[in-house]
Design goal:
mainly beta, 1 helix
Length: about 300
């Protein structure tokens, strides 16, 4: 096994306002806008190409977001999955997959190649339990539980052809992969790709690049791990934030990595959460949109990826 390459990127700050728990960065390639959340504020935040920041206060803790074709935002709140209109401020409930019967809240989520919002939960019990789960939510409100026995569902991402889904559990410290049908959203059996130590970085949010590598935020280690489809860490990006939470590709050529982080005193002094960015020798792919027809979405992905399936 080849030792991973250690990289110290040239990092720039993206925002000045401190975050409690920055998460779920999503680049809107149509508007050149970066969206992200501050989980406990709670707030949805939009950063425009001009540097203007718009903050939308949420009525409950917000775990993740996804884009819609009509410019609304699908948001995962403590109270369920909602559609939020940034213009009117209106919310429309889509589904409440967790309910109030267990002590969990919605956490990491993304729109998948099937046009559905894939959203996991996080145990808020003390000590944490394995009551968390992963759900698939359609624009029509239909919801399916696809994985159980989790503590902190995280790390959702898809291969460039949409045929593999990645998923992690931050507390149980494993990364797994599923065969994925982008037309139906059906999963094959999950298989463990690797487990992580605290020093390697508990696997938090993630993304994939055009070459099929998986980028995982090592929230306990101040680093970003680039992982091969076989589960080998091939590159380690040492970051100036102690607790990175999730990366996403953005910028005009999708070669900029934006990384959110959370507030922590792990380094011996308090450091607020933030958003950083740096350029990489890799290219991302644009995000999927909630409610889009899966065949059209994956066809566009294949076209954008050089026509390869």
């Amino acid at each position: 096994m080849t030792a991973p390459r250690i990289i110290r990127p040239d990092v720039r700050s993206v925002i000045q306002q401190p975050l409690t728990v920055g998460e779920s960065p999503v680049w809107d390639e149509e508007t050149g806008t970066l969206w992200f959340v501050d989980i406990l504020a709670p707030a949805l935040v939009r950063l425009s190409a001009s540097g203007k920041i718009d903050r939308f206060d949420m009525p409950a803790a917000i775990g993740a977001l996804g884009l819609c074709r009509d410019h609304r935002i699908v948001v995962a709140l403590q109270t369920g999955v909602h559609l939020f209109d940034p213009v009117s401020g209106d919310f429309e409930l889509v589904s409440d997959p967790v309910g109030r019967h267990i002590n969990c809240r919605l956490n990491d989520g993304k729109v998948g190649p099937d046009g559905h919002f894939w959203i996991g939960s996080f145990s808020e019990a003390k000590p944490q339990t394995d009551e968390a789960a992963l759900y698939r939510v359609g624009a029509d409100g239909r919801t399916r539980t696809v994985a159980t026995g989790l503590t902190s569902s995280n790390g959702l991402a898809w291969s460039p052809d949409g045929r593999r889904m990645y998923h992690s559990d931050s507390r149980q410290c494993f990364l797994q992969a599923f065969d994925f049908d982008p037309d139906t959203g059906d999963l094959g059996d999950g298989r463990r790709l690797r487990s992580f130590t605290e020093d390697e970085g508990r696997p938090d949010g993630a993304t994939t690049d055009r070459d099929g590598f998986y980028w995982s935020a090592g929230v306990s280690a101040g680093r970003l791990n680039r992982i091969s489809p076989e589960g080998e860490i091939v590159e380690i990006y040492i970051l100036p934030v102690p607790a990175p939470t999730m990366p996403c590709f953005g910028g005009p050529d999708l070669r900029t990595l934006f990384v959110t982080s959370l507030s922590t005193d792990r380094s011996g002094r308090f450091e607020a959460g933030t958003v950083i960015a740096f350029d990489v020798d890799a290219e991302g792919l644009p995000p999927f949109r909630f409610g889009d027809h899966p065949i059209a979405m994956t066809a566009n992905r294949w076209k954008d990826n050089g026509g390869e399936r």
